[in-house]
Amino acid sequence: MTERFDVVVVGGGHNALVAAAYLSRAGRSVLVLERLDRVGGAAVSATPFPGVPARLSRYSYLVSLLPDAIVADLGLRITLRSRAVSSYTPLDGGGLLVEHEPGEATAASFRDLTGSDGELTRWMSFYDSLSAMATATAPTMLQPVPSRARFRELVADDRLWTQVFEQPIGTTIEETFTHDVVRGVVATDALIGTHTSLLSPELLANRCFLYHLIGGEWRVPVGGMGAVTRELSRVARENGATIRTSALVTRVDADGTTAEVTYRTGEREETVAAGHVLAGVAPAVLDRLRGRESTKPVGAQLKINVLLSRLPRLRAGIDPRQAFAGTLHLDESYRDLENGYTASVSGNVPDPLPGEMYCHTLTDGSIVDGELHTLTLFGLHTPAALFEKDNSGRRAELVARYLAGLNRHLAEPIEDCLATDEDGRPCIEARTPLDLEDELAMPGGHIFHGDLAWPFSEEGGGWGVATDVPNLLLCGSGARRAGGVSGIGGHNAAHAVLDVSSARP
C-alpha cells in the first residue's frame, strides 16, 4: 500500500525543517525526504580536520534574517550573540574600525581615514534611515506578499525609496559617501551571494543589499550553525514529523489536487502520495524532478575555513581580538569590488581578490576545545566558470592568493598560526561554487538558489511560494523573501498550506 501524508517536503534544509515544524504542530502529517545522511542543508556544523575537536559552521555561518517570531512560535532553544565589532578594514598604515555600537573609537577611525567627521556623519544618517526602513518593513516578511505601493508606504521616505529601490545601489553609494574604502564597506552588503555590478540597472545588488539590511544585525549562533539545525529537527520530530535521510527524491508529480513523490533509499524505490508537496530544493532542481528544462543559476563565492592555534598579529597594531571579531574586509574598496566583477565576467581571476572574514570563536568559544580559533573567509566575484576546467587546481590557487592578500596586513604570516590535524596537515579547507553544487545540490553553487526577488510584487497577494501548480510550493531559498538562514521560506510555505486548508468547507 502506498504511504500517504498531508505534506511531503523535498529536501531537509533549515527551511524545510521550519515548514515541517509548523505543519506538524498544526496537526498535519508530514514527511521530510533528505538525500544526505543528515538534515540541515547548508546550516550545519562539521569536524573536517581529523583529530581536532573543532565544530565549524562549514557552509553558512551567521544568522540575520531569522525572525524572533519564528524562534518564539517553534520554541527554539537557540542563542544568537552580537559581535562587539561590526567591521574592520586593514589598510597600509592603519585601518577603518566600525564598532557594533559606533562610539569614539569608530569616530577616531573615520577621522584618521578621511581627515574630518563628515563621512561618519553621512554614515550615521544613512544607516539611521535604513534602520527605520527595516523596522517598518521586516514584519511583512512573515505576512502575505505586500504590493509595491504598500511597501513604499511603509518605507515612508521618498529619497530612500529612490536610493534603494529605483536607482543602482552603486549610484546611491557614490552620491552618499566620498571615500573609496567607506564606499566599499557599504557596498559589500549588496554583493554577498550575488554576482553583479553595483551599477547594474537590473538592481540585483539593490535586492541583495535590502535583504542584508532588512534582517537587522548579523549574529553568531552559539554552538555553531549545527545548533540551529538540531533545534529545528527536534521541534519537527517532537510535533510528529517524519524525517527520512539518505532518501534521494527522483521524481515529483502534482496536478493541483493530488501529488506523488518518488524516492530511492539504497536499491529500493518507493512512492508516497501527498496532498501538498513543498520543495526545499532549488527551483532548477525541482524542474528536473518534474522532467522540465530550466536554466541553472550561477554562484560566485569561495568559502574558506581555517583553524588557528593563535590569532595573528596585525601590522597596524590593532588587537587581533578586535580586528577579527567582526567582518574583516580584505581588498573590498568600492573600486576593488567593481574591478573584481569586471575581471570575473571576462573569465579572469580578480586581482586583488575581494573577500571578508571573521572569527566565530571570539564571540562563541563553545565550538572548539582549548585555545583554538576559527577563521572564516567568504570570497566575492569568483563565479563557477573560473573553476570548470580545473576545480581542485583553481581552488588551491585562490586559497594561496587569499592568504597572501591577508599576509600583506599581518606582522607574521598566517601560515605560522595555522593549527594542524593529527597527520600534521594544516587545518584549512575551501569550497568553490562547484563544490557546493556537488555537496549540497545547489545548482551552480548559488547560495540563494537563484536571483533574489523584491519582497513585494506589483499587486501583492499570496505567500510568495507558488509554482504553476496549486499544491506544489517552494519552501527553500528560491521562494520570494527567502535566502540566508532565515526560515522565512519554510514559514510562508507552511502558512500557504494552512490557509488553503482552513478555506476548505
Description:
This protein is of the alpha/beta class. It has a domain at 3-41 and 223-294 and 450-503: FAD/NAD(P)-binding domain (3-Layer(bba) Sandwich), CATH 3.50.50.60. Helices cover 34% and strands 18% of the residues. The protein is built from 16 helices and 18 strands. It has helices spanning 14-25, 68-74, 104-114, 118-137, 148-155, 158-166, 169-176, 180-187, 204-214, 225-238, 283-289, 320-323, 334-345, 391-407, 433-440, 488-503; strands spanning 3-10, 30-33, 45-46, 56-57, 80-81, 85-91, 94-99, 220-221, 242-244, 248-254, 259-265, 268-279, 302-308, 327-330, 355-358, 373-379, 428-431, 472-474. The strands form four sheets. Strands 1, 2, 9, 10, 11, 12 and 18 form a seven-stranded mixed sheet that branches. The chain has a seven-stranded mixed sheet with strand order 7-6-14-15-16-13-17, sandwiched between helices. Helix 1 runs parallel beside helix 10 (225-238). The radius of gyration is 23 Å and the shape is globular. The model has no long low-confidence stretch (mean pLDDT 96).
